[in-house]
């Protein structure tokens, strides 16, 4: 049976046309090379080279085998190179998870764009979910890194890094009475008692949903939740349709500008939307480490102009 060493020997002899030169090229002595050639011919039952005083000349069978030998060796060398690139993180896949509101912050698409330019051969897959879902995906190795709105308590196997606290704003339909008010000090949370709230159900009991509900309780009232959207953008669509108000991260303020007015909260209302970077500190390739490094820079570029 032919082996890779037989094919390499065939290529070397064919290109050098001389056993001695071929042996030197392969880093072996001539007798072992002669034995390799003989065994290859015996395995195939054909003569691969004609021996001449001036060197070795391929037979018809040898020329046919040489074409296949080049193909096999080239494919193997390409596979070896690909493996090396994967091990160095130069290719492969990066799986990124994110909550819906996290992707709406301009810093995250910028990080993804930078990564695409720096590592063009690494396939980036994106997975959206709530914080609990993404934590499970991280632990199941379905994502490599995730951006979530809820902190992860008691997670010894997970690295949790807070990137920033983003101010939250009140989103009201453009014709709403609150939209007509000009308040330099911002809206107090207590002023929203009795309003119809639209929140985003996918974050129920964690993340932004729980942050908003807890803040309302702290202000002395239970929010009247008229509608729950499956995600933050759906909630904003309902606000634009005039169904109620919502409280959203400030970075959402570019959506529906002709239908929604985004009002700042009072400085006495410390309501923010934190963004956390989570990942497992295992099997960190060069590409993954670079992505994490760039994501950490979001701390320095997270400030937004006041709305």
From TrEMBL:
Keywords: DNA-binding, Transcription, Transcription regulation. It comes from the Bacteria. InterPro entries: BudR_PBP2 (IPR037410), LysR_HTH_N (IPR000847), LysR_subst-bd (IPR005119), WH-like_DNA-bd_sf (IPR036388), WH_DNA-bd_sf (IPR036390). SUPFAM superfamilies: Periplasmic binding protein-like II, Winged helix' DNA-binding domain. This is LysR family transcriptional regulator. Gene3D superfamilies: Periplasmic binding protein-like II, Winged helix-like DNA-binding domain superfamily/Winged helix DNA-binding domain. Belongs to the LysR transcriptional regulatory family. GO terms for molecular function: DNA binding; DNA-binding transcription factor activity. GO terms for cellular component: protein-DNA complex. Residues 2-59 form the HTH lysR-type domain. It holds the Pfam family HTH_1. The keyword Transcription regulation applies.
